[in-house]
Write a structure and sequence with these properties.
By secondary structure, the chain is mainly α. The protein has 15 helices and 5 strands. It folds into 2 domains: 279 residues, Fido-like domain (Fic-like fold, Orthogonal Bundle), CATH 1.10.3290; 69 residues, Arc Repressor Mutant, subunit A (Orthogonal Bundle), CATH 1.10.10. Helix 5 crosses helix 8.
Amino acid sequence: MKNFNAGTYISQGFYKSFQPTLINRQWYLENMEVIQLLSKADRELGRLDMYSDYIPNIDLFISMHVLKEATQSSKIEGTQTNIEEALREREDVPLDKRDDWEEIQNYSFAMETAIKDLEKLPFSSRLIRQTHKRLLQGVRGEKRMPGEFRRSQNWIGGATLNDASFIPPVHTSVPGLMSDLESFVHNREIFFPELLKIALIHYQFETIHPFLDGNGRVGRLMITLYLVSKGILKKPVLYLSDFLETHRRHYYENLMLVRTKNDISQWFKFFLVGVIETADKGIRTFDSILQLQKQVDQKVKTLGRGVANAQKITEYLYHKPLINAEKVSIVAGVSSPSAYTLIRNLERLGIIREITGGQRGKEYIFEEYLNLFQ
């Protein structure tokens, strides 16, 4: 990595844009600290992936992981909605928070559909554009060429090009740079460890900034998509946005260090630490879910004839830990009076808790489960 050259600044008249070096080439790894972190990250990722086989109905819990990722990734971009608010129905969200809420729902939808798309599409520019289109559908940025690479100059930070903190390459280079990135993804003649490969791809994508809006969210979403597409993860169970949000300043600083100092090793180290910490947190979360599931099952079994319907509700709550009487009635397939009986039983067992405090429109939360994702 010692001879790595990130790119050059090119004059565009009254400003300079950054032209990154192409990445579809042979890479040589010399930094022992990066190699050591890579080894640890691979081990932790393998342990996390094990849960894909170990936990029954793991897809139930993945939806909450996706929602947390959507919330944290959007938070990096400035949204203020938390995970509890993101669980609500649109009509229950205050008007001043609906834009943020809709962006989070779009992110969740974009991630879930992109994972399904991988069954028939490779990790590619086409997949990235489709995902971007879904991300911006009907929200702020919907008029900024959803699903299309930009055809004008953009910038990062500052109100104009004059005070921008970083100016990506001129728009005419975007197709060629993205083609190079895609070639690197699928180049089987070049050996490079997959975790470093996606670290480099993420850096390059954020540097190219190929869209007018949504680049950060798409770039973070790509990390999970890549790991699933390469079979490193059987299920989408690793999401880095929580780590990147917690270390937001270092995240941006390390990306800029590559561009200004050619320090790709520092970026690799930061990325690998993120994988290690996130995988470890994911493992602890899954362990806690298994313990909670066992406790909840034992409580529900005390309900006698009401067990089957209560199990339907608890299964729903693992997917979405916020519920009301109408939803209980629909999920369990019971009358309204029976739904309220179910709710009282689940409250009595300490599984759900009423959070609105009113007489009507009561909502109930599976708090112990939700706390695992806070």
